[in-house]
Amino acid sequence: MEQRIPLVILAAGASTRMGQAKQLLQADGELLLHRIIRIGQEAGFAPLVVVTGARQQAIAPHLDGLPVQQAYNPDWATGMGSSVSVGLMAALGLLPGAPAVGFVLTDQPYVSAALLRGMKARLLDTEAAGIAAAYQQTLGVPAIFRSALYPELRQLSGQKGAKPLLRKYADELIAYPFPQGHIDLDTPADWAAYRNRADE
Description:
Blueprint: E1 7-11, E2 26-27, E3 30-31, H1 32-42, E4 48-52, H2 56-59, E5 68-72, H3 80-94, E6 100-105, H4 113-124, E7 130-135, E8 138-146, H5 150-154, H6 163-168, E9 173-177, H7 188-199
Parallel strand pairs: 1-4, 1-6, 4-5, 7-9
Antiparallel strand pairs: 2-3, 6-8, 7-8
């Protein structure tokens, strides 16, 4: 029987550059928030935790009735690091013995269930400390960290999220190719470019 691994969806940011809650942008008739929840389920992660913050009041109603646990980060303004910590604690509260915890964003439009499923299977097939998406000569999210890194994940703060940890343990993490991982939706121009690409 495959080990259960929680997935933390980081959705606490203010989407300042987008000018609206990018988690609630709609592509192909589906909110980006709902899309990543569906992908996490299809990839076999459970339980799922959604970390909210700046746009909590707008996002919360869209989580009603979904098989996710909401975790509010009151320190969202300090950056993604605190959201990683809040999400980890919420996930371990739901599944205390979790051997690993995954982390994803809502604004990477090319994340797929196949990608997450592949990352999870590859990690569980090794003794590595974790696995992270590799793109443009760097490691980033999606990422899955084993329990050995929980103490340091709990201590994260600041704007860089888990990046310091990904750099520190680069030699101990599996780099999983995800060439489109650098594409995210931060600005109206990013969104327009993605929509144009999707329509081609």
